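Severity: low
Component: inverse-folding endpoint
Summary: output formatting inconsistent between runs
Steps to reproduce: submit the following structure tokens with default settings.
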């Protein structure tokens, strides 16, 4: 007779993937301010466990190392920003309103969560050998949506016909730099006012109509 195959059932209660994902998010949300406050090098995983009032082993069941926990916390921050964009930006029909709202949401998110700004700084300092920092991984994964938005605006005659890659890069650099300046300088200017200043200069430039006319004449363009 052929040998009978014995199927062994795993011990313990089966994992609920939804609960596992929720627990991971809870740990990461607790870890972000801990790393931001103490710095990567000075943070012990026990600090995160203490913040959640659980044993250190609980953290290691979800994240094998401190490095894995830290990088996942940085990634969690960028995912939260993406979720905010999905809920508040990409749902808008008008592409110009989407661009305006995106700047406000971006600056507002990092003002509400300065711990993620600190984590981006720490990631660059502690993990210089990474091929691409987390921030730029997320930016590059979603930039095609902005390229398409700019193409539509150009096609509708609402935006100058300039390379969409250049437009996306310049706008990203503006808000990226503003985000870090806000953090380092502890600016108190309301985000709404900052966004309005950026939008005014992006949409209208700094030159008067007369000066723009002079420059067109010098270049020999109509």
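Observed output (run 2 of 3):
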């Amino acid at each position: 007779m052929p040998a009978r195959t014995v199927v062994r059932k795993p011990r313990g209660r089966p994992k609920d993937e939804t609960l596992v994902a929720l627990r991971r998010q809870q740990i990461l949300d607790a870890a972000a301010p801990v790393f931001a406050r103490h710095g990567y090098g000075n943070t012990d995983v026990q600090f995160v466990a203490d913040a959640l009032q659980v044993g250190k082993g609980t953290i290691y069941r979800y994240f094998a190392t401190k490095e894995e926990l830290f990088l996942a916390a940085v990634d969690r921050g960028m995912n939260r920003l993406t979720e905010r964009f999905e809920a508040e930006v990409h749902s808008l029909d008008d592409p110009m309103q989407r661009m305006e709202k995106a700047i406000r949401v971006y600056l507002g998110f990092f003002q509400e969560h300065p711990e993620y700004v600190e984590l981006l700084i720490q990631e660059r300092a502690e993990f210089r050998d990474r091929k691409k920092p987390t921030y730029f991984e997320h930016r590059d994964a979603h930039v095609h949506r902005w390229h398409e938005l700019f193409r539509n605006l150009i096609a509708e005659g609402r935006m100058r016909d300039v390379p969409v890659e250049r437009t996306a890069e310049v706008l990203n650099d503006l808000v990226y730099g503003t985000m870090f300046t806000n953090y380092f300088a502890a600016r108190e200017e309301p985000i709404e006012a900052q966004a309005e200043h950026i939008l005014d200069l992006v949409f209208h430039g700094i030159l008067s109509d007369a000066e723009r006319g002079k420059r067109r004449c010098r270049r020999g363009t109509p």
